[in-house]
Write a structure and sequence with these properties.
The chain is α/β, with parallel strands linked by helices. The chain has eleven helices and ten strands. It binds S-adenosylmethionine.
Length: 245
Amino acid sequence: MVAARCGAELASREASLDALLVERGAELAYVVGREVEWLYGPGRARLVVHRGMLDSRRDAGAIHPLVRALVPAGERPLTRVLDATLGLAQDAIHLADVLGVRIVGVEVSPALASLAEAGLARELTRGLEAAGRIEVVCGDAAEVLAALPGASVDVVYVDEMFARPRRSAPGFALLRRVAGHAPLGARFWEEAKRVAARRVVVKLPRDAVDPAAFAFDEVVIGQAMAYGIHHTGERSLAFAPAAKA
Ligand SMILES: C[S@@+](CC[C@H](N)C(=O)[O-])C[C@H]1O[C@@H](n2cnc3c(N)ncnc32)[C@H](O)[C@@H]1O
């Protein structure tokens, strides 16, 4: 199934991965192991989906800037979030765990969507209930949003690839290689604002945030990252000032 989705050749693994790649003239291998699935690339880099930094993010609870950006203190809890750029599902796992929300995670790269499905299923069997609240959809986020009714999720969350700084870690280079790069485009932003009942939240490197350029309504600043917010509707109700006499 993974091979068909990725349009890749299926090979049983009798030799080492390096030997197999040389033999096939390939640079990347998606490995379906007995317990773990991973993507293997140049320099022995590998990508796998797991709970990652969840424990430290959990410690920050509701004051973590990502959580505050999605649901400011005092607002009623979220029930449904659409993560338009799921990637390795680190933010989705964090939000599903800390907020208890259901998440639709959209990922355009078939290899990354497959890794996310496998990794989340494995984390669920290991007792991470949040993993069971994340549904992976492989596809282009603008198309997925266009098929949804207006105001059908509380928040659309966006963490675009192009906004990430270049780093030298081999895993990051591999992610960059298989991930979708094209800017999300005007249609995506229109659809995101239509589908998000409360807000669209955009993750950016802290030093890249220029609120004027993005026309955010609000920005929550974290240590390395910042979260730009486009409010789409309910905030004015949730935070309505007391009526003047
Ligand atoms: C920076 S990563 C997201 C990382 C993610 N927030 C995490 O915590 O692991 C961006 C991801 O968005 C995906 N992507 C890019 N364009 C997309 C699109 N049009 N629709 C869905 N996913 C897209 C990329 O393939 C990449 O995996």
